[in-house]
Amino acid sequence: MLEHLLLQAILIPALGAPAIILLRSFAGRKAAWIARLGLLYSTGLLLLACLKLYQGGAPLLETHAFAGPEITLDLLGDGLSLPIALIINLLCLALSIYADHYIDHRIEAIYGAIDERTATNHYTRFYALFLLFPTGFMGVCFASNLIGIYFFLEILPLPLYFIMAMFGYVDRVRVAMICLMWAVFGAGFFLVGSIIVYYASGTFAVSGIAALAGTPAAKWAIAMFLVTIMAKMAVVPFQVWMPWVHAEHPTCIAGLLAVYANIAVYVMLRLLVIPLTADFQTCFALPLMILALITMVYGALLTLGQTDIKRFAACSTISQLAYSMLGVCSLTTAGIEGGMFFFLGHIMGKTILFSTAGIIVYTTGIRDIRQLGGLARKMPVTTALWIIAALGLAGFPPMSSFPAEWIMFTGIFKAGITGSLIKLIVAIAGAAAITLSVVYCFRSVKLIFFGPLSERLALDDHVKDPPLSMSLPLLGVSAVAIFMGLYPRFILDLFHQVIGPLAF
């Protein structure tokens, strides 16, 4: 079962997508189970691989030749890539179940009264496109070649574009095009950076990037890659796309868009920080820490001003993405490990928050927070899910973000105390900025779920907790986030296998 495990994690969803299309005439909507069963299988594989690595097993190295030995797909599963891939795959599995009722709702809202065959075609198209997300995510996690990473990064905007255009909300086609154009913009810079690495080292292998250390080519390559990374992470001044795109897509893929943006910090660590530490520290670390702080504060203040429930969740993503960048750019072991652990906590918390926002819109038909209130009386499970998400995003125990922030800011303050005064000021300001997250998270709990319940909502029999197929996957993600908060060592020890031996 573990043979070619990394390739299986990539190919299972990739092959599932055409299988859903081909079988929909026979299986109808049951064809969507191809996605769920495939993701369940690959999640189990990744969990076994993490357990084996945790118990002292060797990292997984795979080379797969295509069209001869000159064209290969080189894959690496180590203490950094495997746990990240595991959590991402788990979220894909949870959202594939959550999406069942939600996508039916969007089809009815957009396309109206259509025949069952047409509705089934839309439904199965969604799941076929959905599987391209785990294909791209697993490829980015495991590819150890720049062209491979580029290829898998560029797979991701395609399902995002088509799903948004077909099932999104306001101006869905225009917003989908905005997202695609930003992806193309970032891709160009990544390709230029890859070409610089090739001409300086003679290889596209990630292991060859270290050969650039101390040369002018290193700084140019870092600069090119960073434009791509900052654009995907919506770091100021590249944040303009996030409120539009993240607020208007169908909420059943919101958690995946959070992964799409946040996985860029993994790419930064793998391609820039680890192989080119000295060059990165000399010219880029401090400016990026300052930009991360600005983004944290800007995103939090922007979130406080939102009245649309989906735009609220979208703007909070801008702020939360920057935490991981701040930790990684501290260039301390604790800062990097804490930053990557926060990345996992954030994508789980944002999956729960955004999916719960989708439940509220699905149930009430209302996006304006000012028209909500008192929903805890009629939607107790939904209320609990939102509070769990708020605890996670605000960094409260027992959620995984609590130890993540503790460890991350330990490293950030160490960088400030042993480094420059500016880094210390950034560390203090970054810790203070957490209070803004606390304010907007728990303010939203009060405004949406407590206080008086409007007469319209009180009399509406449709305002109730959603079907179990929507709430149970989110409760499962919540359980994983709490487990990681109570027992963080499993993931952190895996991270330490890669980060610990390096000279940070």
Q: Summarize model confidence as the mean pLDDT.
A: 92
Outline, from the CA principal axes? globular
Strand order of the largest sheet: 1-2
Distance between the termini: 37 Å
What's the Cα radius of gyration? 22 Å
Secondary structure: helix percent = over 70%
Low-confidence stretches: none
Instruction: Tell me how many strands there are.
Output: 2
Number of separate helices? 21
**Strand residue content:** under 5%
The succession of helices and strands, N to C, reads HHEEHHHHHHHHHHHHHHHHHHH
* Major sheet summary line: 2 strands, antiparallel
Indicate the structural class: mainly alpha
How would you portray this structure in words?
The structure is a single chain. With 504 residues, this protein is mostly helical. It is 75% helix and 2% strand. It is built from 21 helices and two strands. It has helices spanning 5-27, 33-54, 81-111, 116-130, 132-142, 146-155, 157-167, 172-201, 216-233, 241-248, 254-273, 277-283, 285-304, 309-329, 333-364, 380-394, 401-418, 421-449, 455-459, 468-486, 489-499; strands at 60-65, 72-77. A two-stranded antiparallel sheet has the order 1-2. Strand 1 and strand 2 (72-77) form a beta hairpin. Helix 2 packs antiparallel against helix 3. The two termini are 37 Å apart.
What would the keywords be for this entry?
504 residues, single chain, 75% helix, globular, two-stranded antiparallel sheet, 2 strands, 2% strand, 21 helices, mainly alpha
Q: What is the strand and helix layout of this fold?
A:
Layout (H helix, E strand, L loop, with lengths): L4 H23 L5 H22 L5 E6 L6 E6 L3 H31 L4 H15 L1 H11 L3 H10 L1 H11 L4 H30 L14 H18 L7 H8 L5 H20 L3 H7 L1 H20 L4 H21 L3 H32 L15 H15 L6 H18 L2 H29 L5 H5 L8 H19 L2 H11 L5
Antiparallel strand pairs: 1-2
